[in-house]
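name: query_chain
kind: protein
chains: 1
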Amino acid sequence: MHADEWAARLELAACYRIFAMLGWTEMIYNHITVRLPSSVTGSSKQFLINPFGLLYSEVTASNLVKIDVAGKVLDGSSHKVNPAGFTVHAAIHNGVPDAHCIMHTHTTAGVAVACLEGGLQQTNFYTAQLHDMVAYHDFEGITIHADEGPRLLESIGQKPALILRNHGLLAWGQTVPQTFAILWTLQRACEVQLATFTMGKAIPVSPDVAARCTRDALQFDPQHGGGQDMFAALTRQVARIDASYQR
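structure:
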């Protein structure tokens, strides 16, 4: 196996274990995917996805499945791939040049905000770091139909955070740590909004202040680490708990 592919597998497997540690899981469902670099794939687009049927806590570097954007298994894996995951992730990996990594969750707070009329509102520290970064896509049912792909891409545009209405959260980025930082911020924004709205009317954050917060939120910028320090710290924590993801 190419060293770059093994490095990608290790990083992605660690990410699955981080999600499991944080409770961002939905039984055997949902996905985190990584598009493999051209040093591994040449001119073709290939990505790694979790084996369908395994818990996130069971994902390892070696049991991740390598597929192309048509869903063909490329590494001889005997594991199945969930069509719902393939449809969304393949469309974005294929259609958004910088979408190296894609993460999708069904957390309670994320789904709750996705079901809320008005969606995410500019009322807290975390939403203020996502000014003009969040897109929305209307619910079309279970995402197993390829014809939804172009509409999904149109909804995303160039915004790296996506709220799938009535469904959940999604983020994409140039690296796994950057994508994680975006999704973590979006998740926290939803959690705080959910808590705030149970108590009463929220104090709005002005667009000017939110724009300044987003500009100053350097954890998304690859030139300032792009979430690498946070992701590395969580990877160390996961390794102390259970390093079996490295197999």
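note: The CA atoms of residues 126 and 186 lie 7 Å apart.
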